[in-house]
């Protein structure tokens, strides 16, 4: 370790690492040597003061260069960190950050990527925290308890695995490096001690100079030392180099050779430093400047006093010029950061504007979610902002997004309740469809199936995980019923087509029928046609016009036989009665027919009353008036219709009573059979 004296010397050492004397003689006497040493001691303090005044380059840039070189001093490969680009991690997604982390840990030396890893981790932690808070809000909004919230993120797990790998590699690196750095530090401290001893050794100056050069070479190959010791050790080393050169004034030839070589090397460094002014890439230029300072410091000794001030001033000015360019560049960056800050504030305000008017329907809200996501992407890609407001800007952004997410989650929480209600409604319809799919009461079941299908369409969305399943079950039940109904209709269609053929043949024979002149025989023949027609049964719906043709021919025959209209209608109505009794649901059909006839009776009564009221307005008119005759004719026609409808209703009632009687008899027969069995 450095002793107290060395520490003091280290702190007093100047930026320029050369201190020379004013006078050197080749063969000094003992008194001359003493005088020269005293002169050197007097001039050293003055020269140090001059150097401290002359060598002031911007302290911050020199400290930055020293710190960076100290960091590189720990490992010869550490300089690679300068050529690994620092990306805009703020604009990258969590997945991309994990990918970049994997790439760095796998392909780059662990000691060269610390700043890169720190930047990635900082941005990943911010983004993941925002993501996790969003998921927690969703969990709570869906009815969960905050204390029970857990989230397993694949991306976070991948990040932790890669980051743990990095830490393990870093620990292994530092563990293996630690002993080596410690040994190298001991070597360098010993070299300093040996260098201090050269001044007090009484031997031939050439031998001493050779030993000095050997120590310099040993110093160059001693290896890296801990960065915390780097600058102090180098200052101490150069301090004693200067003392040795003060001592070396006794041999001007040796000293001048070193001064000349050092001056030539420093001139080359200065030229390289001055050339950096034209290098466009400031990062590359500054990295090169760091290297030049390292060479100036580590590899090249002092120069003579005559050139010392000028050479350092040139090097200092080149450093200042590049530093000034960098400062200007940073100032421009700060302006850019301010512009980025304005953009980000606008984005935050855009998010807040959407949040103040969150849509109340799914479609509109989905559109707003896309808009929010686009604004989030814009925020991350807007670039850096001034460091002093970075945390505040991020917090404002995060709060604005969280406010929107809370309202969005509240909406979908209500939607979820509504969807659950819809699910319950659809389950009820499904149960009804399942109960009807095997029904034999096709008229009732068909009507009900159509009704619940329409009702199903009116019910809104159900939870997605149930949507497909319940729809398939409902559709299958409906399809099963209608497929069975269609199969039954197809079978019935065959019978109806056969009935149509039979009725067509009957109609053809009726069309060829001629009255014989014997009224009773002709009437019996017509009744025979009617009976045959009744017995045939229904025809296809699209063939029902054949019934109208049949009735039209009957009307013509009845007219020729002078049969009253009501009697003719009742004879034909028997055909309708037969169709009702042959149907699948006789009771329902009877009820519907009775309702129809009652409505016709009411309509006929209403027409008669209206016409009779109208007739009172013609009290003074003659009965021979055409208008009066027309009204009377209409009244009589409606009364005939009324009588016919009443007769039809009576016939329906008789049919219904007969059917009821048959049903009672069947029940009685069933009871008697049961009694006989029990007996």
From TrEMBL:
Residues 19-32 have a biased composition (Polar residues). Residues 1-18 have a biased composition (Basic and acidic residues). This is DUF349 domain-containing protein. Residues 1-61, 659-679 are annotated as: Disordered. Residues 663-679 have a biased composition (Acidic residues). Pfam families: DUF349.
